[in-house]
Specification:
By secondary structure, the protein is an alpha+beta fold. The chain has helices at about 10-15, 45-50, 55-65, 70-90, 100-115, 230-245, 255, 265-280, 285-295, 300-305, 310-320, and strands spanning about 30-35, 125-130, 140-150, 170-175, 180-195, 200-205, 220. It binds zinc ion (ZN).
Length: about 325
């Protein structure tokens, strides 16, 4: 079968990344935080305020609202400091700021990969939970550090996910701009998996500007700062959440996902997911793992297996191929 090189999400955005400006001081927002409803230290203001203001203006507003020495202001300072360090580490910082030669080389490479000049896009932090998961103070979540870019008008009609090769940590969505529907992508440059009982230990994934089309291996951040039991739970949740998040960006309503007549799409997706993981040396030893990767429930997956037995066979063959360790 002839294969045509597919563009990556970085190729398609082609430099059309979004740099937001602060509505108060008008300066570019280099990095910011989009709190979800109920996130700690965000309830003193509307969520829009966080999206529209830079760090200094958010903290200034909080100081005026709840007092400069309040726990909220201190927590906000810490939070923005943390985002800033990811921003630096991601290579989005200013190369003129006298950083180490290695970081400077990385910054130049990031600009080249993103197709931007001096100004890099705004890096936003959002917290992510699986849709049906409980969102209590001890429940695991991912922190997604992402940038947004516009896709060209030509890609407006329909952008199937398999239109892209390479780095798959992005979501696609639509927005109306001046009466025109436009497609944009949010690309995740860094992901932290967090399980509150294990904090400060976390599991981190980072985009690598020298290999802009690949995913990097996860690393354990601050190993040894939590109990072994919590470390094991962190690892378990991190794997589960990571493969559930991100790869699909458009929200998938699984009941409508494969309506009658789209059985071939289901077969194709199963094949794609399995091939991809096999390339990484990963075996879905349970149907649950495959369902997670497909962003489906286990029962919905079984339902589809009944309708598309070839897909079920593919999965069985995949399990038989399990590499020996
Ligand atoms: Zn500002």
């Amino acid at each position: 079968m002839a294969s045509v090189a597919k563009p990556t999400i970085f190729d398609v955005v082609d430099g059309a990344w979004v740099l937001d400006n602060c509505r108060l001081c008008q300066k570019p927002i280099r990095f910011g935080w989009h709190p979800r409803p109920g996130e700690p230290h965000s309830s003193w203001a509307s969520q829009l305020l966080f999206r529209r203001l830079c760090r200094d203006c958010v903290i200034g507003a909080a100081a005026a609202e709840v007092g400069p020495q309040s726990a909220t202001v201190l927590a906000l300072r810490r939070r923005y400091k943390r985002i800033e360090s990811v921003w630096h580490f991601a290579g989005l910082g200013d190369p003129d700021e006298g950083e180490s030669p290695l970081l400077r080389a990385k910054q130049l490479q990031v600009r080249r990969s993103l197709g931007v000049g001096r100004e890099t896009p705004t890096l936003w932090l959002v917290r992510w939970h699986p849709r049906r998961q409980h969102k209590g103070p001890n429940d695991p979540y991912l922190e997604l550090f992402q940038i947004t870019g516009w896709l060209p008008v030509a890609s407006m009609s329909a952008v199937p996910r398999d239109a892209f090769s390479g780095y798959q940590r992005f979501g696609l969505a639509e927005r109306e701009v001046d009466g025109q529907l436009q497609v944009y992508a949010t690309v995740q440059l860094a992901i932290n998996a967090c399980f509150p009982p294990a904090i400060p230990t976390e599991i981190h994934w980072r985009w690598d500007p020298w290999q802009p089309n690949d995913e990097t291996e996860p690393i354990i951040h601050r190993f040894g700062y939590c109990s072994n039991e919590n470390l094991a739970l962190l690892a378990h949740h991190a794997g589960r959440l990571y493969y559930k998040a991100g790869r699909t960006g458009r929200t998938r309503d699984e009941t409508k996902r494969y309506p009658p007549g789209t059985e071939q799409d289901f077969l194709r997706d199963v094949k794609e997911v399995i091939t991809q993981r096999e390339r990484d040396g990963i075996t879905f030893t349970t149907v649950e793992m495959l369902a997670d990767a497909m962003a489906m429930s286990r029962s919905a997956l079984y339902e589809m297996f009944k309708q598309v037995p070839e897909a079920h066979d593919l999965y069985r063959e995949h399990k038989r191929r399990k590499p020996r360790r």
